[in-house]
Every structure is written in C-alpha cells, then in structure tokens.
Amino acid sequence: VLENQDLQDSIKPQKVEFRSLNFNSTLHWQPGRTREARDTVYFVQYKVYGQSTWQNKDDCWGIQNHVCDLTNETSDIQEPYYGRVKAMSAGVYSDWSLSCRFTPWRETMIGPPTVTVVHSNKTIILKLQAPRSPYKRKKGSKMPMTNYYDLLYQVFIINNLLNEQHRVLVYEGKEKVIKIENLRPGVSYCIVAKMYMPMLDRSSAYSSRQCTVL
C-alpha cells in the first residue's frame, strides 16, 4: 500500500495552469516528480466556478500529452473556470491537481495586429487588422478581438539609420487605415504595431516588422 501511495504522489501532475491567447485557451501541466514512465496517461476535467459537478474532457481522457485544448469549453468568456488533471501509471491513479481560477475575458493575452503596407511614396499607408478570436459569427467568419474589448492600435516607426531599438509612436487610435507622412526619401523605415487595451492597461506583443524604402 505504501508503495502505491508513493507512486500516487510521485506521478501527480504539477503546475496545472491555463494559458490563453485571443481566447484560444489551453490547460498545461508538468509531469509529477519522478521521471515520467512511458505508460503515464492523463485525464482532464473542467467546470465553471460554483458548479458542483466536473465535466470530463473526452479528447483529453487517457492522453500522453501535457496540454489540453479547452477553447470550446471556456467560450463564455466572462465566467470563471477551473481545470484539473490526474495521472495514471502502472494501474495506479494520482489525486487530482487543480488549476487556479481562470476567467478568459480577464486573463487572455491579446495578440498583435496584422500590418500591411499598402502604398508608399513620401507617405506610408498602412492597413491594420485586429487579431481574431476562435468564436464565429453566424455567417462563419471569426470575430475580431475588437468585438470583446475597447482596443486601440499603436503604430511605431523605426528609422533604420538610427538605433534599431528606437521605436517612435506615430499613431494611436481605432482607424484601420492610416497614413504616415513627411518621411525622408531613400531612407529605410520599418513599422511595427501592437494592440493596446486601456481598460486593463495591457498591450499585445509587437507585430512582425514591415519594412519599406521610400
């Protein structure tokens, strides 16, 4: 019995946590303290805070991965959720390991916008597009993150003659097409942008750079 108890404790999953980007929400965990045996499998359940019964996540029942996609199960983005995971090895089950409470609307990270340089002469014209959530409109297109939050685009310009790290904020607002004027011909400029959420004072990562020589 003791050996079983030891095995139970040593295979119990560690560091169970939700990670979420644009409401694509996955549960992650690490194997127990011992080196993971080949036959270790994991079982995942989830529930809304305040509910008494846990739901099995069928796609993550007896899996060998350390990650489980709960995007569809956490689609009510204002609700707080919990996930939990247990392991089985050599016919022995661990106890459940519980995640912290996870509320998608509060905790999801926002991704960067997509930036397209449409035109450049002495002026750079940019098209900005907010990242999309996994949730669809009735017609089937994915809803942009701007449907869920009051988001601003922040556009920065990097003049390659100057310091690479020196980004100058040239625009902040909600317009999707913007003009950057009065630039010097023959100079290579790069543009990066991010999404900013004033309410939670949170920013996305920078978009990938778009560079152009005027």
From TrEMBL:
Keyword NAD: no
Naturally occurring in which organism (per UniProt): Pelecanus crispus
GO molecular function, one term: cytokine receptor activity
UniProt subcellular location: Secreted
InterPro entries cross-referenced by the UniProt entry: FN3_dom, FN3_sf, Ig-like_fold, Interferon/interleukin_rcp_dom, Type-II_Cytokine-TF_Rcpt
Domain Fibronectin type-III: 12-107
Record's protein name: Interleukin-22 receptor subunit alpha-2
A GO CC term attached to the entry: extracellular region
Role of this protein: Receptor for IL22. Binds to IL22, prevents interaction with the functional IL-22R complex and blocks the activity of IL22 (in vitro). May play an important role as an IL22 antagonist in the regulation of inflammatory responses.
Pfam families in alphabetical order: Interfer-bind, Tissue_fac
Keywords, alphabetical: Disulfide bond, Receptor, Repeat, Secreted, Signal
Secreted as UniProt keyword: yes
Origin: domain of life: Eukaryota
Residue intervals passing through the bilayer: none
Homology family: Belongs to the type II cytokine receptor family.
